[in-house]
Write a structure and sequence with these properties.
Blueprint (H helix, E strand, L loop, with lengths): L21 E6 L4 H8 L10 E3 L5 E2 L19 H6 L1 E6 L6 E3 L2 E3 L7 E4 L6 E7 L2 E5 L3 H18 L18 H6 L3 E3 L17 H9 L10
Parallel strand pairs: 1-4, 1-10, 2-4
Antiparallel strand pairs: 2-3, 5-6, 6-7, 8-9
Helix pairs in contact: 3-5
Amino acid sequence: LDCRRDNNDNSFYYQEVVPKKRIVLHFTAGYLKGDIATLTTPYYHVSVPFIVARSGDIYNPWASKYWSYHLGNTAIGGNTEMSSSSIAIEISNIGFLIKDGKNFHTIYSNDDVYCEQGETGYYTEVAAYRGQKYYATFTNAQYRSLILLLRYLTARYNIPRVFLSPDKIFEPFASAEEAANFSGICSHVNFRPTGKWDIGPAFNWKKLMFGVWKPVAGANPVG
């Protein structure tokens, strides 16, 4: 879905074409309306070209050939270098949750109850990752849309359909050189040793990989 601002403002991204080497997945740690507003803040220059709603709808505020900051000032490899050479995708998801009795609330307020303990379809409990063990789930519609989007972007920009190995998928890159050399699909935590949880262990990487790698029916094999 095209979600350009009504006034055609483009001050939140740079209209500079930079070759793309990788795709970086994020979650928004918010709700869709606020996600879009935050990621199109005038003159802020922290934005992404794609936001995947819980419904599976994909919002596209600007062309993916351009760039904006999305990794943070302490990003391994440098925020400018890594952000400009990456395509960022934000998945609308509240992120980690705080357990309070039988309720789970968001990081923003004890009163912002996300779900109850019995509503197991809305949260995932995992081994503690960066100090947090409860995370909001991603929807099947989000996985389906994300898979289609990744297949499209990797083909358009000739980005390898390569993922980090299981022992590295939740770990930061070991050096700026490793970050710069990686070409494929990774996530925010690979650039940030602390302070970020996206995409954490509640995300089903195997499901995503299978979908991205799955051959298209009727397609001729590439020899």
